[in-house]
Amino acid sequence: MTRGKHYLSFLTFFLCTVWFSGSVFANVLNFSVTLNPKSYTIRPIDVEPSDRSVTVEIINGSGDIDLYVRKGTPAQGSSSSELKINSDFASESPSWQERITINSSTNPPLSAGRWYITIVNLNSQSVSVRVRVSSQTSTGTAGGGSNGPGGTTKSQPTSGRTNPNFRPQVGLWYNKSKPGHGVDIEQSGSNLAAVWYTYNPDSTPTWYLAIGPYSGQSTWTATLNKYHWNGTSAVASPVGTITLEFKNRTKATFRWNLNGQSGSEPLERFSMADHVPQTNLTGLWYNSSEPGYGYSIDTQGNTVAIVAYFYDSQGEPRWALNSSQGSVLSQASVPAIVFFGPCPNCSGTNFTSAPAGTITRSFSDSTHGTIGVNITLPAPMNSSWSRPASPVTLLSSRVNNQELDLEMAVDEVMGVFSDTGDMLGGLTGDLGSLDLSNIKSSTCPRISYGDLSNLNLSGPMHIPLRVDFGSGCTDNDGNSWSGGISAPINVTLGASSMHLDTSVSVNNLTRNGLFLGSGTTSIVLDLAQSGSSDLLSGTGHINLNMTGVDHQPLTGQIGLRFTNINIAPLFQTATGSGGLSFTNLLQVVGSSGSIDVNLNNVAQGPDRVSGTISVRSQSQGVGQVDLNLQTSDGPVVGSFTVRQGSSPSDIFVSTVSPATIYNYQVTINNMEVNPSVCEDSPVSGTMDVTKGGNRGRFTFDRSCLGYTYTGL
């Protein structure tokens, strides 16, 4: 082994990707496809009304790949020339490096709706291709979903898919980047119902209702009605349509056409607690003797939220909200609140509220109760709605509380794997959308590391690395950064060993106005050649003393042990895109390696974890992940086999024996996880979950919409 071949590559990797917590830096979402020789594939993307530009680019591939984009319908053709003629945009360089940017100045200009990407493999062999789709909105550039304010990074949607057993989670849904309004989605027999709580152009609250047949399709469209109270009953008037495009049971895109205007936004299930209530009241409730108004009730844990939808003195639809904690079956009289905010197509994100009387509730079980309202609406509505305590019944379908309880384990398991990947991937996480491929000429950030040409390879070296964004600069993807990172690196190279230590100082780093971190992280690494091979073994230690996203403290110690690892995949990750995936980890441990991570009271805000994570090779492309963690939410203990699939992003997971995930016992059998196929859900396989005497099986069927649930 030569020092130049391995340790200097490791130094280059380290210079480009100074370790930082994966929860602090944004990761750009990508999707991967494998194309047969002389073939092409088409992927749809959705452009939101707030998008000002969209960039589609191939970020990894080989040979000759072409890229096309078309609005509205997929391109048709049996050759590249035909596909080009039938597309709005084309990128056809002689290599795989293609990029298309669409904005208001292009022809055609960017507009909201469905667009289609066509990726063509002109090679005589199969090629794996990674594609990135990013958008710049009026309030920021999309990066890693929630890490970039005002936008999302789009990847493969599930439009057009059907699973007869799929049902979205019922209850209140909202756009987390624009809280203050939302949609209550409920199942009622063979119909889906959606109550849209929003605002008029004068900022006063209003609501609309849509009901239509539903049979498990990913895209549901129904007529949107506005209701008017004539004194004794409600009269419906059609005002447009709404469409829900479900990614899975808890995420969707909400599209609307209202009085000649249109728009769309992401929705997700609103979360108030991490456990199900003893009695689940979630659903639409009404007084059967006086239909036409009612109540959206959402119960999670010991929280009960009630949205009353009713009318003012002019018969116009209005709504008010209350929430309380305690036993859902106990009687309570809770102050009601009325909200004011921007209409669906109005600018602004500010919401205000005012007291509006009381809502009194009492329930005997999950389908029967009484509700009374005494609501006074402030100016400019200046009216009231009052109903004495009256019997109410559940109008929508009753929630299967046992299934919902076990379903939470599915989310917890996927979260554990995501968090574990983030923890391990944080060791080589890149700076999100920053292009560091040519750091010498980088202007955002300005990177300095001294004169590397005179390094003393036979003795101690000092590399004064600095990453400086100054008071503010914009990267190649339009993201605005400020602050800086200083990481003076001390390195000593031996004939077959390396010692490295640094203290990373982060100074008020922000991205698009979002505070990412300040503080210090100290890192010590000792690596040595494993015998005469090109593999490395050694130890490391990381000490965190940071303030991270939302100004949450990020503290604790992490110990590392490497045995017979291959650093090449780390280097490839550092110079490519995204963090360290489980596929990369399988390549790192190879056929005989292992990585052991010891967490000592690692905390981010109120979340704490101690224990061990181990990744050990069983054979090439097959590893075992052992978790023995104590977290603030409970234990995470188990052993999992992880096997790489046919594509780089494809892995299969099974439990060696039942694992303990918080309060659940979980057995996973050949669960396929592939973000390029199913962005937010397992692709196939089964998961058996037990909690006390409640047992069930979740079977994933490649629809990417959810699962088939069977009680055991």
Q: What structural class do the secondary elements suggest?
A: mainly beta
Q: What portion of residues is helical?
A: under 10%
**In what range is the share of β-strand residues?**
over 45%
From the alpha-carbon coordinates, what is the Rg to the nearest angstrom? 27 Å
Number of helices: 5
Distance between the termini: 56 Å
Question: What's the domain count?
Answer: 3
Number of distinct beta strands: 42
Low confidence ranges: 1-29, 138-159, 425-433, 573-580
Overall mean pLDDT stands at 82
Give the overall form: globular
- What profile does the largest beta sheet have? 17 strands, antiparallel
Any overview of this molecule?
- The chain has 712 residues and is mainly beta.
- The chain has three domains: 3-23 and 407-711, no CATH class; 31-147, Jelly Rolls (Sandwich); 171-398, no CATH class.
- 9% of the residues lie in helices and 53% in strands.
- The strands form five sheets. The chain has a 17-stranded antiparallel sheet that branches. An eight-stranded antiparallel beta barrel has the order 10-11-12-13-14-15-16-17. It has an eight-stranded antiparallel sheet with strand order 21-20-19-18-25-24-23-22, with no helix packed on it.
- The longest helix is centred in the middle third of the chain and has 25 residues, at 401-425.
